[in-house]
Amino acid sequence: MTIATLSSMIAQTLRRVQPGQQVEALTLESSYTAGATSLSLSDPAGTILPSLRPETVLSIDLELFYCQAVSGTTATVVPGYLGSTSANHSSGAMVYLNPRFSAFDIMCAINDDLSDLCSPENNLFTVDSIEVTYNPATVGYDLTGVTGLIDILSIQQKMPYPVGYWVPFPRKKWTLTANADLTAFPSGYALRLNEGGYPGMPLRITYKQQFQPFAALTDDATTVAGLSNTMYDLPPLGAMIAIVAPREVKRNQIDAAPDSRRATEVPPGAVMNSVAQVLALRARRINAEASRLKQLYGTQAGR
Predict the structure, then answer these.
(1) Second label for 303, Cα 20 to 30 Å away, from 82, 181, 247, 264?
(2) Cβ-proximal residues to 54 (8 Å cutoff; 6+ apart), any chain
């Protein structure tokens, strides 16, 4: 069975956006503690460290550093650069110099794409459920522990002994309110039952939920983000588009000349056009996964 993590998705994105292109890299000579302002570096090849200079951006795991000074094998740095989060890093970790696409940039693009996939236009989601116990004295129920709720797919109530099976609770018998009073409903979601059920018996609420963002390289795509194994390719596709498309903006700046390629080789608009096929592929894959969800959950998946 395929297992995907944030780390593998970042690697997949990099293989596609810069195939065969290498980024200069050093290694950490010793472990780094979050918030420290110096890095002890090692250069196995002996060719990169001598050229390391101030103003270089360093990337380690999901953190960016701004290099202010270099003395021997020690770099004085600003940690948590450009909004990245300062964290501990292990000895031997790769230190990339001025990467075209850092792991932090790609993680942000992947998380943005996860939010976009859950929009009404794309209509993708993960499914979860909770149970609450019916109390005839209670009309409104807090959906404790629920976050990122999109919609409720179904509500079922367990029948008392000796029947024991679960019976659907009709849609007309309940109302969902988002942005509910947090004092009475800490989750922010209030489920109102318009008709009674069986006292003391559980109600199983199955709902559509947004994908959750990644925070660490080891985060699992299913257990953390909520992606099914057929959706593992979608965030890298979205990240490719998000990180490549803005490079046309950099190319068109008039106060610098960052693109050394001749216009006849790479004409204006070529960067934007390079992601057109990726956009088409992503749209096709989103439609395929939306159809899969509709097949599993019926018309409720598309409403």
Answers:
(1) 181
(2) 67, 68, 69, 70
